[in-house]
Fold this protein.
Amino acid sequence: MSKKKTKQVQYRLWTPVANAYDIYRRRLIANPEAFYEHTWRLIHIQESLIVTLGSSGASHFGKYIKLKVDR
């Protein structure tokens, strides 16, 4: 895979986390006293991190398993 394509895939991987953080930041600035909403926005950031890291880990684990089977 070329370096340019690798970079594009890498940026796509972190897009949900960046989007969740951006929404949280904008809502915090717009209404700093909406604690309930901010809590849910933080949970959304956590969920997007879990899904992103989980899918990344599964991808790397799949490559590892394939290497073990090929040997």
In short: The two ends are 22 Å apart (CA to CA).
